[in-house]
Amino acid sequence: MCPQIVKSAATILVGLCCLVVIFVFVMNAYMKGERATREIASRRRVNGERANGERSTRERANGERANRNSLAAPGVFDHARAQTRNVSMVAQRRQKSGNVNMRDDPTAKKAVTFSDDKNTKIMSVKAERVKKLTTVDRKQQTASTLKPSQNTSAKLSTVVKNENKKKDIRQPDSNSTSQQHINTHSTRSSIRNGRKTDSTGISNGTNPHRQKYLIYLCDGRRPCAGWGDRQRGLVSTFLIAYVTGRRFGINMTNPCNLNRFYQPNQVAWNVTESDIQNKSVRFIDSMDAKGAFHGNLLKVDVDEAYPEDVIFVRTNVEHFWSVRGNPHYKKKLPPLALHGRPWFFKEAWSMLMKPTQHLQDHAEDFLRQCRYFNRTKPFVCAHVRIGVSKYNPKDTEKRNDVNKLGALWDFLQAYVSNGSDVFLATDNPDVREMSRKKFGSAHHDTGGVILHVDKTRGDRDQERACLGFEYALLDQHVLTQCDVLVTSNSMFSARAALIRGTVENLFHFANGNVTKVTRL
Predict the structure, then answer these.
(1) I need a labelling partner for 69 at 20 to 30 A (CA). Which of 20, 154, 245, 287 fits?
(2) Domain residue extents for the chain
(3) Which class is domain 368-516?
(4) pLDDT given for residue 392 in this prediction
């Protein structure tokens, strides 16, 4: 019995050993297969990464080569130089072949020239050969700082005599919405220069880097209203330029150039003629909200409705609410515009304008005469707009009555009796003389020429007109510095109040009464 049991146990043990051997063999084979699979996968991954790296290197090298050969985000001068270089190459090839014909040559250019005819500069467009483009010297104009002299009137007269020596951007005598294409190209040459244009030469926007301009225009060829209205239209145009991504410019030469008295502060608005040369142009007249432009600002994309490279806008309209309500620009508004119209105007004007040394010195000299810098009592100012009178027959309406100023004199007398000095700005010499008699040495005025700046168009005495313009700017600048300010029915003092920036001690005179102003 026992030998049988031992034999059975041995058989079972041998079987178990065989199973163990088989299991070990199978596991070794499995592990070898796994290792082989991992090695193959690893080799494939390494080969793939190497191939991707080589492909990325080739693509990066190709991209860098393409960037070097392209005009990536060109400025206006870079684009002009590239355009001139490409067109010149075409011209040289045709000259070598002896086949240059200005009439048939699609690369023939038109260049802008500016000619002086007494006080009016007229834009003329004349054809030139392509080869002349290589000699064009694009030099940016620089504004000269005017140094004051002892006599302010004589100083300004000297400045005005040099008026016709400078060249400004001028509007040709055409319809307000007419299109003047300064430069036209064939589609083929335009594509070669990085943009595609249609037969009219208007850019279709395929090149987002093409510099476009929006320029406020007041050159005397058409009315552009008084100084306060101009300020309103100018700042509105700046807002439109901001939301459309266009470069903002100012061309105000009536009755003389604005840059004699104000210079760019934080925004370079002094666009030169070379900046806009060889660009398509449109002129828009939106005075008193006439025409379609003001209505379009409520709903359309300006660049789609007006695709030209350069848009000149003549306007005296407050476009603030139209732009702010336009769905195309809700996300493009500057933060300043979110605080309301008065705040936006004040801050935008500060960003745009800085008095020239000439105007600043003139203002400081006058304020020193008013004992402003060492005052111990409030400096009180009043603007009295009379409107149509024997002194100002070209004005549009009558604003106040010279014989109904009693309430204003009583208001000012209370401050004079307490030791304050009074500054009076007015469009009527009789009002000025009345104040001098009432307040004596406490009365102050600039004593300058009284005129409406927009009523001097065609005036033969441009020196007198420019002198009157300076005194108007000086008057408003002083109004912005006052501790107590009385405005009138005029955009002139209304804008001064906005620049002053507070309703504290702000009053308004109208219909024979002085009332407190509670909001700007």
Answers:
(1) 245
(2) 109-137+168-355, 368-516
(3) alpha beta
(4) 79
